[in-house]
Amino acid sequence: MVNKLPIFVVQEHFATHHHFDFRLEMGGVLKSWAIPKTIPSRAGVKRLAIQVEDHPLSYATFSGIIPEGNYGAGKVDIWDNGVYELEQGTGVKYTFTLHGNILKGKYYLRKMDGNKWLISKAKKV
E strands along the chain, which residues? Predict the structure, then answer.
């Protein structure tokens, strides 16, 4: 039996405020965070990530236009995607390695307060 790695996707979202939606497959859904700036590609850079509602797995392939009048109206493009390896996941702290087309390497997501998190890339050892 082969264990399949869970997926991740980063969608660039041109809504009222341009941002990136970072999504990790967990428990049959896409756990999701809105990141006002792109996901860090350099070690030590920390970015704010606002946790939003979970999305269905089918949303991982969505690219297109959300019509005006709907929540999240605007253009959505897939910026990066791939699989990831979860090293730690406690609900308030995640450590994982991304294997994407753009994003590669070890990352951290740490909860700060409420729905506010920080995402950062680990320093190479």
Answer: 7-14, 18-26, 29-35, 46-56, 64-66, 74-89, 93-100, 104-113, 116-121
